[in-house]
Amino acid sequence: MIKIFGIKNCDTMKKAFRWLDENHLEYSFHDYKKQGLDEATAKEWVDKLGWENVINKRGTTWRKLDEETKSTMDNKNAVNTMITNTSIIKRPLLVSDNEIYLGFSPEEYTQQLL
Questions:
Q1: What is the pTM assigned to this prediction?
Q2: Residue 28: its pLDDT value, please?
């Protein structure tokens, strides 16, 4: 079963939902705004992908962080930041068969999920 993590109203999330639906793939949705994010999950993502890949540095949430937080970011700080500011996580984040896919890429989804 595919599990997709993100925020319901995000345009990129909507594209991913549409792609999954059009390809008749079953999935469950984890909404950060309603369900939050636990430390173990955040740590697993950071350990597997690196905080530099999981955190969206182009988003407003990153830009709003103070300079000290940004300059001292490491795996541990990233996990804490992800838990308290779930909007900072790149979206969507999709988990299928213990593989993690970050961002929406129809080409990658087609290659890996179909």
A1: 0.93
A2: 98
Among residues 6, 28, 23, which one has the least CA distance to residue 92?
6
CATH assignment of the domain containing 31: 3.40.30.10
Domain that holds residue 28: 2-113
Give CA separation, 74 vs 41, 53, 86, 113, in Å.
16, 12, 16, 31
How confident is the model over 82-94, as pLDDT tens digits?
999 999 999 999 9
Report the chain's C-alpha Rg in angstroms: 14
Provide the annotated active-site residues. Answer: 10
CA proximity to 14, closest of 26, 2, 29 = 29
CA 49 from centre of chain: 11
